[in-house]
UniProtKB/TrEMBL annotation:
Ni(2+) binds at H88, H90, E94, H133. It is found in: Cell membrane; Cytoplasm; Nucleus. SUPFAM superfamilies: RmlC-like cupins. This is Acireductone dioxygenase. Its cofactor is Ni(2+); Fe(2+). Its main location: membrane. It comes from Lipotes vexillifer. Keywords: Amino-acid biosynthesis, Cell membrane, Cytoplasm, Dioxygenase, Iron, Membrane, Metal-binding, Methionine biosynthesis, Nickel, Nucleus, Oxidoreductase. Pathway: Amino-acid biosynthesis; L-methionine biosynthesis via salvage pathway; L-methionine from S-methyl-5-thio-alpha-D-ribose 1-phosphate: step 5/6. Fe(2+) binds at H88, H90, E94, H133. Residues 9-22 have a biased composition (Basic and acidic residues). Catalyzes 2 different reactions between oxygen and the acireductone 1,2-dihydroxy-3-keto-5-methylthiopentene (DHK-MTPene) depending upon the metal bound in the active site. Fe-containing acireductone dioxygenase (Fe-ARD) produces formate and 2-keto-4-methylthiobutyrate (KMTB), the alpha-ketoacid precursor of methionine in the methionine recycle pathway. Ni-containing acireductone dioxygenase (Ni-ARD) produces methylthiopropionate, carbon monoxide and formate, and does not lie on the methionine recycle pathway. Also down-regulates cell migration mediated by MMP14.
Length: 179
């Protein structure tokens, strides 16, 4: 089951857990209130998993590829890691399914505080279009993930501030409705 918590304010190595003191865990219900969706799947059978196929069909996730993020496999590794960790949003949902390894997605809550979501093998997450977020590996420095899209992939990240985009406005309207 996914683990999530409010982060401390330390600027220390982002690959560390950064659990706030006192500990403030975040549950699936609170993540859903931010538009973040989560599934636990069997990553060992991702190539023939009826549960994954059902989710893809229901949510129209028609495009898929697999990325391995580690020094040996990802060209321009250091540059990409820094880019992934810059706070940004996308105009489309970001869907990731962890097939091996682990890392962190950080998302902003309604009060603009960071929530860290620990993702490991079998975890699948959807971050809604317009949510400010970032990604980093953990101290193991390795993750293999499936990237899914509705239609053709769009890789554009918009660094904060990006409040002028329609996707951001729609996301803020969603948050207002869940308040």
């Amino acid at each position: 089951m996914v683990q999530a918590w409010y982060m401390d304010k330390s600027a220390d190595d982002p690959r560390r857990p950064h659990r706030g003191e006192p500990a403030r865990p975040v549950g699936l219900e609170q993540l859903r209130g931010l538009g973040v969706l989560y599934w636990q799947l069997d990553a060992d059978k991702y190539e023939n998993d009826p549960e994954l196929e059902k989710i893809r069909k229901e949510r129209n996730y028609s495009w898929m590829d697999i990325i391995t993020i580690c020094k040996d496999k990802l060209p321009n590794y250091e540059e990409k890691i820094k880019m992934f960790y810059e706070e940004h949003l996308h105009l489309d949902d970001e869907i990731r399914y962890i097939l091996d390894g682990s890392g962190y997605f950080d998302v902003r809550d309604k009060e603009d505080r960071w929530i860290r979501i620990f993702m490991e093998k079998g975890d699948m997450i959807t971050l809604p279009a317009g949510i400010y977020h970032r990604f980093t590996l953990d101290e193991k420095n390795y993750v293999k993930a499936m990237r899914l899209f509705v239609g053709d992939p769009v890789w554009t990240a918009y660094s904060r501030p990006a409040d002028h985009f329609e996707a951001r406005g729609q996301y803020l309207e969603f948050l207002a409705q869940t308040a």
